[in-house]
Design brief:
five-stranded mixed beta sheet; D-Maltodextrin-Binding Protein, domain 2; alpha/beta; single chain; 2 domains; 9 helices
């Protein structure tokens, strides 16, 4: 019958139109960012602002800078790397794994000695670590963690390294050092000032490393080279770095205890 043919024709027509008009939701663009774990809170806030400005999401991988370096060397999909130490970035640059012209120092930090909120032994300086009553002291592993490298440098310059070495507990990153201290598993730990132990009431800062006892702590950031990465992705990565370097980004870093670069 005619009306049946009309109905079928209309159904086919609307089906074709619907197919032509159907567009799956565009996948949200994102850039993978590997960053030192000490940057976590500050970078999460910066990324929120970045997403509002660009509609691009920063997908983070936080960890010890040495571990992140190894992941990049093994081909991990990373667009931006932010390290807590220059050595890790230098190593990647020497291998041609970053875009050199995008590399910038964006923050500094200080090294501090922390103790549990209710310490067994009162400490007022790094020199107090030499007391025989001091048991275990946690630092980041110097082989992989910039904070551990700075800690070793400071302890050596203060003539404390040899005496303390048998009592050192080596951690994967500064946040693990903080955990050891807050749980009372060690008598003291060495972390960055930006880890904000006192602010969170988790531990107490006993002292800051004496001036000149270690190299300046600088945080570099750069775009990572990836095979087949398009120009637009590089531009999106560069925009994230520019936000970190901007006055707004620097104010956020300062809020979380970082020093100017």
């Amino acid at each position: 019958m005619l009306w049946k043919r009309v109905v079928v024709a209309l159904l086919v027509f609307f089906s074709v139109v619907a197919s032509a008009c159907y567009c799956p939701a565009a996948q949200k663009v994102e850039i993978p960012v590997s960053a030192a774990i000490s940057l976590k809170e500050a970078f999460v806030e910066i990324a929120s602002l970045y997403e509002k400005q660009t509609r691009i999401r920063a997908r983070f991988n936080f960890g010890g800078s040495g571990l992140l370096q190894k992941q990049i060397e093994m081909g991990a999909p990373v667009d931006v790397f932010a390290s807590a130490g220059e050595k890790q970035m230098d190593d990647l640059q020497s291998q041609g794994l970053i875009v050199p012209e995008t590399r910038r120092d964006f923050a500094g930090n200080a090294l501090v000695l922390i103790v549990p909120v209710h310490p067994k032994i009162a400490l007022k300086s790094f020199a107090d670590l030499a007391q025989p009553e001091i048991g275990r002291v946690a630092i980041g592993s110097p082989n992989a963690v910039p904070a551990g490298q700075y800690a070793e440098e400071a302890l050596r310059n203060l003539k404390l390294w040899d005496a303390l070495q048998p009592r050192l507990v080596l951690a994967e990153n500064v946040r693990q050092v903080l955990d050891y201290v807050t749980r009372g598993e060690v008598d003291a730990g060495i972390v960055y000032a930006s880890d904000r132990a006192e602010v969170h009431g988790q531990a107490a800062i006993a002292a800051q490393a004496p001036k000149g006892s270690h190299s300046p702590i600088r945080y570099p950031i750069a775009v990572v080279k990836q095979a087949g990465k398009g120009e637009s992705k590089g531009k999106e990565s560069q925009r994230f770095i520019e936000l970190v370097l901007s006055g707004t980004g620097q104010a956020i870093l300062e809020k979380y205890g970082f020093l100017g670069s």
